[in-house]
Design goal:
Elements (H helix, E strand, L loop, with lengths): L3 E4 L2 E3 L5 E7 L9 E6 L6 E6 L5 E3 L7 E6 L4 E6 L8 E7 L13 E2 L3 E5 L2
Length: 122
C-alpha cells in the first residue's frame, strides 16, 4: 500500500512559477514510476508528466519546455517544477503511482494523492 501527499499549490500570476511536491509513504517508491495529472473544473483528468525509476521523463505537449518532473528517492518524493505558467494551467494537480503491468500480482494498484490546487490568474 502506498499513500501519496501533494503540496506546493497556490495562486500565481501568468508567467510565474510554482513547484509541486508529492511525498510517498513507501521507502520503496524508487522502484516505481511516478507521475502528475491535472483536472480543471468540468474537464477530464489529463496526464501531465511522468518519470520512471531510471530517471527518464515524458511530458504532455501542452507543458513541454515549461514543466520539469524530477524525483528524490532518498526523500520518497517527486516534484513538478512549473515555469511560464498560463491561465490554462489552472487545475487541481494529482500525484500518481501507476500499476506495473509486468507485475500485476504485486504492483497492481493505481495510487492517487488527494490533489493540490494551482490557480494562474492576473
Amino acid at each position: 500500500q502506498v499513500q501519496l501527499q501533494e503540496s506546493g499549490g497556490g495562486w500565481v500570476q501568468p508567467g510565474g512559477s510554482l513547484r509541486l511536491s508529492c511525498t510517498a509513504s513507501s521507502s520503496r517508491i524508487s522502484l516505481r514510476t511516478m507521475g502528475w495529472y491535472r483536472q480543471a473544473p468540468g474537464k477530464q483528468r489529463e496526464w501531465v508528466a511522468s518519470i520512471v525509476s531510471g530517471g527518464a521523463t515524458n511530458y504532455a505537449d501542452s507543458v513541454k519546455g515549461r514543466f520539469a518532473i524530477s524525483r528524490d528517492d532518498a526523500k520518497n518524493t517527486a516534484y513538478l517544477q512549473m515555469n511560464s505558467l498560463k491561465p490554462e494551467d489552472t487545475a487541481v494537480y494529482y500525484c500518481n503511482v501507476p500499476p506495473r503491468s509486468s507485475r500485476p500480482d504485486v504492483y497492481g494498484t493505481d495510487y492517487w494523492g488527494q490533489g493540490t490546487q494551482v490557480t494562474v490568474s492576473s
